[in-house]
Design goal:
CATH class: Mainly Beta
Pfam families: Cu-oxidase_2
Low-confidence stretches: none
Distance between the termini: 20 Å
InterPro entries: Cu-oxidase_C (IPR011706), Cupredoxin (IPR008972)
Protein name: Plastocyanin-like domain-containing protein
CATH architecture: Sandwich
Number of domains: 1
Structural class: alpha+beta
GO molecular function: copper ion binding; oxidoreductase activity
Organism: Leptosphaeria maculans (strain JN3 / isolate v23.1.3 / race Av1-4-5-6-7-8)
Strand content: 25-35%
CATH topology: Immunoglobulin-like
Strand order of the largest sheet: 4-2-6-7
Number of helices: 4
């Protein structure tokens, strides 16, 4: 993965339900379908997606670029019953030196205490507490790479246009 385009095969292994599979934080291009419709629909070919429907016994090939954000990504079925029964997976694309991410923490571990849910207390909603939280978020530098984000967006559109 590490910041380059990667082709995935998403396979529906059985059962009668269709699966709307959603990959977080990326848009992807649907390349092919086999074992079901055997064709990419015109609306799928027209642009980038973040959800793809997978029919019983079907394999869908997609291409995605996991950048510029390092760390943990997630994909899951949007049928909540399926999601609740293990159709939700996280995967780590690790640190991306090429994109300017070094050994600093950039949201790599979603279970890091700073990002875990906390009990709600009224003191957290005072003007001063909100100001401190905003300053803390700003200090994480989560949005300091806008030029990279724009470049990745242009590259994704180039991938979509060339297919």
């Amino acid at each position: 993965m590490i910041g380059r385009s990667t082709i995935w095969e998403l396979r529906h292994g059985g059962g009668n339900a269709t699966h709307p599979v959603h990959i977080h934080l990326v848009d992807f291009q649907v390349l092919s379908r086999t074992g079901g419709r055997n064709a990419v629909s015109s609306y799928e070919a027209a642009g980038m997606k973040d959800v793809v429907w997978i029919a019983p016994n079907e394999t869908v090939r997609v291409v995605a670029r996991y950048a510029p954000w390092d760390g943990v990504y997630m994909f899951h079925c949007h049928n909540l019953v399926h999601e609740d029964h293990d159709m939700l997976v996280a995967f780590n694309v690790t640190q991306l030196e090429k994109w300017g991410y070094d050994s600093e923490t950039h949201f790599i571990d979603p279970m890091e205490p700073a990002f875990r849910p906390k009990n709600v207390v009224p003191e957290d909603y005072t003007d001063e507490a909100v100001k401190r939280k905003i300053e803390w978020f700003w200090g994480t530098n989560a949005y300091n790479r806008t030029s990279i984000v724009k470049r990745v967006g242009r590259n994704l559109m180039a991938i979509s246009s060339s297919a």
